[in-house]
Amino acid sequence: MPYKEKSDLPDSIQHVLPAHAQEIYKEAFNRAWEQYKDKADRSDDASREETAHRVAWLVVKQDYDKGDDDRWHKKK
User: Fold this and answer.
1) Which of 28, 29, 55, 60 is 20 to 30 A removed from 41 (C-alpha atoms)?
2) Domains detected in the chain
3) Is the pTM of this model over 0.70?
4) Tens digit of pLDDT per residue, the chain (76 long)?
């Protein structure tokens, strides 16, 4: 289920990621949703949605780190 707007993201994403990171997450999720629609394209038994969320987090973590304050910050 691709996300049209950041406001469509799960609350758990909206409450922990800054606005820019939410946009990155949304776009990465949507791309992965399309890329891994066929089960044969996934490397494990994860669902399409689980795979898309996993990919989205990996992409966010390229630009953001979770700080000691439990908030996500843009990498320097």
Assistant:
1) 60
2) 11-74 (1.10.1740.70)
3) yes
4) 899 999 999 999 999 999 999 999 999 999 999 999 999 888 888 999 999 999 999 999 999 999 998 889 999 8
